[in-house]
TrEMBL record:
Assembly: Homodimer.
Protein family according to the UniProt entry: Belongs to the UPP synthase family.
One cellular-component annotation, GO: cytosol
Protein name per the record: Isoprenyl transferase
Chain sites annotated for binding Mg(2+): D16, E192
Gene Ontology MF: a single term: ditrans,polycis-undecaprenyl-diphosphate synthase [(2E,6E)-farnesyl-diphosphate specific] activity
Enzyme class: transferase
Entry superkingdom: Bacteria
Cofactor: Mg(2+)
Binding site for substrate: 17-21, 29, 33, 61-63, 65, 67, 173, 179-181
Its biological purpose: Catalyzes the condensation of isopentenyl diphosphate (IPP) with allylic pyrophosphates generating different type of terpenoids.
One of the Pfam families matching this protein, by short name: Prenyltransf
Phylogenetic classification of the source organism: Bacteria, Pseudomonadati, Pseudomonadota, Alphaproteobacteria, Hyphomicrobiales
Amino acid sequence: MQSDIHHKIHLGIIMDGNGRWATRLGHERGWGHREGVRAIRPVVEAVRDAGVGTLTLYAFSSDNWRRPAAEVAILLRLLGSYLRDEIESLVRAGIRLTVIGRRDRLGVRLSRRIAEAEARSAMAERLHLRIAFDYSSRDAIVEAARLAGPNITRDDFAHRLSGGVPDLDLLIRTGGEQRLSDFLLFESAYAELLFTPRLWPDFRPSHVEEALAEFRTRQRRFGALPGPAVAA
Ligand code: IPE
Ligand code: IPE
Ligand code: MG
């Protein structure tokens, strides 16, 4: 599924830097994660208002299980409280929520809450918000490959991998690191990359607007010769 100017854009954000944000202010890392959750709603609403079609937020990687159990427990609890506290507001805002990644390690209660939030918001159409949690792009690719026959086409494979969500158009990573950390590897084949040193808890709607303005200046060629810059 090649991106073009006709579909609404797919934006991905690697929400990084919560731990450093807290440490700098003399707090525990968990404090940074809580403040990170508070930063989500205004950003999501700004993304919706900017006419983005799909927003994928990277919240917890499958490698994040390697962190201390206490920090992992905080992150799992925060997903649960986010779903509990935000689902009504998301539905009212016309936002459909789905969660990508493994479910089998999250526990019965959290998995049930995810399924309920997904069902509750299934009819919303203004923005598709995907939270990547216990997510590994390499695992997702291997899983899709397992189910693919030998004659599968690239487009069919992409569809199987992402359920019809278009390729990533713009990837923002906060927190200063310039790497993908196993996020949407296949889907990022032609994504524009934008790295900002700003830590996630400090990320605001104005920074979304700046990022989208920067994206609009990028000339996407998809391997062809230069054409006009995208107007998204
Ligand atoms: C992002 O912030 C959230 C997760 C990865 C769960 P970090 O916790 O990675 O924060 P830093 O990178 O240590 O500052
Ligand atoms: C990537 O951040 C995962 C999320 C933001 C959820 P990490 O902080 O885990 O990535 P690395 O370890 O710095 O690559
Ligand atoms: Mg980090």
